[in-house]
Amino acid sequence: MEQRLDAGAVAPAAMKAVLGVEAYIRGCGLEPSLIELVKMRASQINGCAFCLDMHSHDARQRGETEQRLYLLDAWREVPFYSPRERAALAWTEALTRIAETHAPDADYAELRRHFSEREMVDLTTLIGLINLWNRLAIGFRSQPPLRKAEAA
Questions:
Q1: Residue span of the structural domain in which 16 resides
Q2: 15-28 as b/e, with b when 16 or more CB fall inside 10 Å?
């Protein structure tokens, strides 16, 4: 599969705007590990190879365990995620599948138990952002790099 186009080269102002939101998210106070889990989970749902590669690599660099990354798709079935992470993952799934779920009240109520109003806005922005990145990467067929250390 070949990349269809380079969005940054074609529309640098658009990419600058998206990167501005990314910079906001990185500095908003949400835990870096939570940010990576949310990005991974949305990317799993959307089937975005580029983002899965990037965010699994980033998560491992930040100390995330292989086990938690491998089991993320089955997070409801294992005890390895905190209640706060579980609330964020449920909200991620609900918003990533918004046409199906319509953001259920139960997911929102659980979110409110673990996040401040500001954090809920930041988390929802993060979820929207990773869904945008997934659409850019999938739509334009961005390809993950082959990592030499992992290729051996």
A1: 11-145
A2: beebeeebeebeee
